[in-house]
Amino acid sequence: MLSIAKAHAYGNDFLFVPADQVENLKLDELSRRLCHRHSGLGGDGVIYYTIAPNGTAQMKLINTDGSPSELSGNGLRCLAALVLYRREHARLAPISEVRVDTDAGWKTLSLISRQGGRYTFRAAMGQPERVTEESIEAAGETLTVTTLAIGNPQCVALMQELPELQRFNRLGPALATHRRFPEGTNVEFAVVEAPDRVRILIWERGVGPTHASGTGACASAISAIAHGGAARDVQVIAPGGAQRVEWLADGVYLTGWAEVVFDGHWVSSTSGR
């Protein structure tokens, strides 16, 4: 049996598997099986992790389609929630900060509050890189977008109104797999509703539509601040709910919650070898 846990942040859900249990498995095949919504456990990705006795952790994220990803802001927060959940159940000394080693570097999350099984963190996401406004032709349209990296690649289209479903389903994958982005990109469509409020829809690289995205919320805020007249402290509202993004002199900070859904075992065959 494979030890496995599940957590979500605003409906963006992840499965968590100890890295030492899958050393001889093909992670792309295993991740696709685990993430399947009907024959697996269902998830937007699998995070293979280790947790040290001092509460620091390490993570590797594989998307639902089996492709790797450098970072997920919500997945990062879900792992921090799992760290605290495990420490509480093991009756270890409480901690108020979790540091995680990711493929995008070390990230630090500070615990803001806990209500029931829901943990709220403020995460230091670092400085955005290569923030550029440009025009891209995709799916028969020419769009003005902001491209950047905030741990992973992002493409944000600021719009007057969010695209209706058919247009979203056409533009999302066209941008995510555009030749401009050889390794693919995450895509957000964003509307600045007020200086302190941005509303978004998300097409996640390697996943498709998601209810929320931590790095996507950060990218949308950065685009709205740089090119849409938004303030440097904004609420970014996705279908799953609102997260706070601050773009300060020392970097971007993301505040939101995560909760552990279950912690148990997967009894299906693990023949992803």
User: pLDDT average, as an integer?
Assistant: 96
Number of domains: 2
Assign the CATH superfamily of the largest domain: Diaminopimelate Epimerase, Chain A, domain 1
Main beta sheet strand tally, sense and closure: 8 strands, mixed, barrel
Measured by DSSP, the beta-strand proportion falls in: over 45%
Keywords:
273 residues; alpha+beta; Diaminopimelate Epimerase, Chain A, domain 1; 8-stranded mixed barrel; 4 helices; 19% helix
Summarize the structure in words.
The chain contains 4 helices and 17 strands. It is α+β, with helices and mostly antiparallel strands and 273 residues long. The protein has 2 domains: 2-126 and 257-266, Diaminopimelate Epimerase, Chain A, domain 1 (Roll); 129-247, Diaminopimelate Epimerase, Chain A, domain 1, CATH 3.10.310. An 8-stranded mixed beta barrel has the order 1-2-3-4-6-7-8-17.
What's the helix and strand layout?
Blueprint: E1 2-9, E2 12-18, H1 27-35, E3 45-51, E4 57-63, E5 68-69, H2 73-89, E6 97-102, E7 105-115, E8 118-126, E9 129-138, E10 141-149, E11 153-158, H3 165-176, E12 186-194, E13 197-204, E14 208-209, H4 214-227, E15 233-238, E16 241-248, E17 251-266
Parallel strand pairs: 2-3, 4-6, 11-12, 13-15
Antiparallel strand pairs: 1-2, 1-17, 3-4, 4-5, 6-7, 7-8, 8-17, 9-10, 10-11, 12-13, 13-14, 15-16, 16-17
Short description, anyone?
By secondary structure, this protein is α+β, with helices and mostly antiparallel strands. The protein has four helices and 17 strands.
